[in-house]
Amino acid sequence: MNDRLQQFLSAENLTQAQFADSINVAKASISHILAGRNKPGYEFIVNMMKAYPDLNIEWMLTGKGKMYRSANQGSVARAQDSPSGNDEDAPIELGLFSDSIPPISSSQEQDRSGQEDTQLQNIEISPETDTSGNIRQQTVRQRKAVKIIIFYDDGTFQEF
């Protein structure tokens, strides 16, 4: 991967420092990866994917394919990622501190109530089992204290 990263930096006309700044990692980590001392971690790869979306990450990791994605692949991926306006099954995304909950359409509400009924019907109640018959008695060997040591705050101690 070191060689492919070096090829990518050359193709983009980037220095190690510029590349490190663009993907928000320490400059030394780029040097260590290129020297073979360290391997790139998850955060490094994710930041690289975000900063350079046209980079073929499979090429970067394994050497398979071309350095850059073709325009068709990128547009297909974007089309699949974009939500359609009439998709009722899509999960509702709320902000972390959102006060309002969007209304649920009647078809979604009916689907959910049907799912809850099905889930309740599938629950089986098993009778309680008596585990008292399964308890084994274990004999524990009695132990005796052999030595007791008391340490005092002035650094002295006594053995008994």
Automatic annotation (TrEMBL):
Polar residues: bias regions: 70-85, 116-138
Short name of any one Pfam family annotated for the protein: HTH_3
Region Disordered, annotated ranges: 70-138
Residue span, HTH cro/C1-type domain: 5-59
CDD domains linked: HTH_XRE
InterPro entries recorded: Cro/C1-type_HTH, Lambda_DNA-bd_dom_sf
GO MF assignments: DNA binding
Top-rank lineage group of the source organism: Bacteria
Name of the protein: Helix-turn-helix transcriptional regulator
Organism: Candidatus Cryptobacteroides faecigallinarum
